[in-house]
Amino acid sequence: MKRLCMSMILVIAFFTPSAFAGEVISSRITDVTLFSGEALVTRNATAAVQKGMQELLIEIEAFRVDSDSVSAKVMGSGEVYGVQIKDVPVKASPRTEIADLEKKIKELRNSRRVLTDQRDVLSKKEKFLESLLSFAENQVSKDIQTKFPKIEDISRTLAFLGSQLQTIDKGRQALDLKVEMVDEEIKRLERELAQLGTVRDKVRRFIEIVFHSSRDQTVTVEASYMCGNAYWQPLYKVAVASSLKDVDLTMFSKIRQKTGEDWNDVAVSLSNVIPLRGVEPPEPSPWILDIPRYERKARRGAEQVVMEKA
Fold it and tell me: How far apart, in Å, are the Cα atoms of 253 and each of 24, 30, 164, 226, 235?
């Protein structure tokens, strides 16, 4: 009896997920199907596995993931025993990351201050040139009353002022663009800083795939999941011919996503359907048909009465 109990304990320990070490495999997003308010993300990965039970972990960085929508398949010789979302707490404190983010934000704010100072200098130069141009116009009108100025002097003055104003305008546009980019980067870093400040213990999220490999091999893993903070909107462009006979209607799409993951070199498909997941057909209620046979019972009663009289 003791030997039987020990063997059962060994079997249970072998088949529990904690009995085999999980292997984190690198993956990349290859396909995205974008719906009106969420996205179906597909990741692909390749891993070398040994014969026996394997725990493959694919890390995901999306903020909101529907755990019921997670699915995965392994292209290889073996069998998939389970697929689920697994959160692994990280004991390392995020104080180092917070300090790095604060340092980056401080550097960006200093660079923004330098850019705004340069823009102010250009604005002052522009005001000076405008005042100089106004003075030149008034002086020319006075000179015309006394003496006629040289055409060459007027042309050189106007060309100089025009080129300087044009250079100042281009420089100010470039500075405005740089300030805008710095502001966007500061906002992004501030969002990351706020997330680290609200979470005491950092958590890494994985898709856990329990796979039993029949041999040593290299397998391809494809995992998909639904995540929020992504949507698309249609935009239409109508072109009407001058003859008013033909109308050309072109549809564009405005895509925005703040899932927390980068969609670089990803095939994106748009869909206007409502995705359904975790939905099962309802259980049919039993419908029992019972027809009482009163006539038959009455006949039997009549036969019994007739037989008694006989």
Answer: 36, 20, 42, 20, 6
